[in-house]
Amino acid sequence: MNSSVSYPIDRAVAVPAEFVRRVFAWMFAGLALTSVTALYTAGSPALLQAIFGNKLVFYALVFGELGLVIAISGAINRLSAGAATGLFLLYSALNGVTLASIFLVYTGGSIAATFFVSAVTFGAMSLYGYVTKKDLTSWGSFLFMGLIGVVIASLVNMFLHSPMVAWVASVCGVIVFVGLTAYDTQKIKVLGAAGFGDDSSRRKASILGALTLYLDFINIFLMLLNLFGRRR
């Protein structure tokens, strides 16, 4: 799920590069924490058994992650900067725990190659969103409808177990999240141009932006892995 907030575009205002750097720094910190946690979990048979051998524990973690995303994106104005940061890092760690399952399904080389391709794709689209003079606001409705379609198809396929539906959902998912990467990057650029009342507001906005881009990247990675990953 992508947590998106709309901001008015004012291209006459200079964009503070420091804010954009802060957003990406927090995003990379979240991805690094997720990677370390996933590798640690995957390397511990006891943890793997405790998490994936018990559906109750696994689904509790999944719903816990969903709750954290909702808490950060929905209550960001009521949270302190420290609380928002802590929740984002907690979400990143929990996501790493659940993502350890990919090491049980796909080969390590396949995971590494897909991660590299995802990083290049994400970087290219994020750069496009940052430097383009085109207003990408009109992409929002189209991408949101596509996202809803991908989510519905994925939920339905939990019961159908259709390889074709899974393939189509993954292809559409890649297109949607690649588009969202450019769209969200431009929104972050615009948000930085708008300015902030204080450092606390700036910190919370950077955490929300980092979460948005983090979700874009993770979803691109998982969709590509589902399409091209080599299974064990």
Number of domains as seen in the coordinates? 1
State the shape.
Answer: globular
What gyration radius follows from the Cα positions, in whole Å?
A: 18 Å
Secondary-structure element string: HHHHHHHHH
Number of H- or I-type helical stretches: 9
Relative helix content: over 70%
User: Beta-strand level of the residues, as a percent range?
Assistant: under 5%
Low-confidence stretches: 1-14
Structural class: mainly alpha
Question: Could you characterize the architecture of this molecule?
Answer:
The protein has 232 residues and is mainly alpha-helical. It has one domain (17-228). 80% of the residues lie in helices and 0% in strands. The chain has nine helices and no strands. The chain has helices spanning 17-42, 45-52, 55-74, 81-99, 102-105, 108-131, 139-160, 163-194, 199-228. Helix 4 packs parallel to helix 9 and helix 8 packs antiparallel against helix 9. It is globular, with a radius of gyration of 18 Å.
Brief account:
The protein is an all-alpha fold. It has one domain. It contains nine helices and no strands.
Ordered list of secondary-structure elements with their pairings:
Elements: H1 17-42, H2 45-52, H3 55-74, H4 81-99, H5 102-105, H6 108-131, H7 139-160, H8 163-194, H9 199-228
Helix pairs in contact: 1-4, 1-9, 3-4, 4-9, 6-8, 6-9, 7-8, 8-9
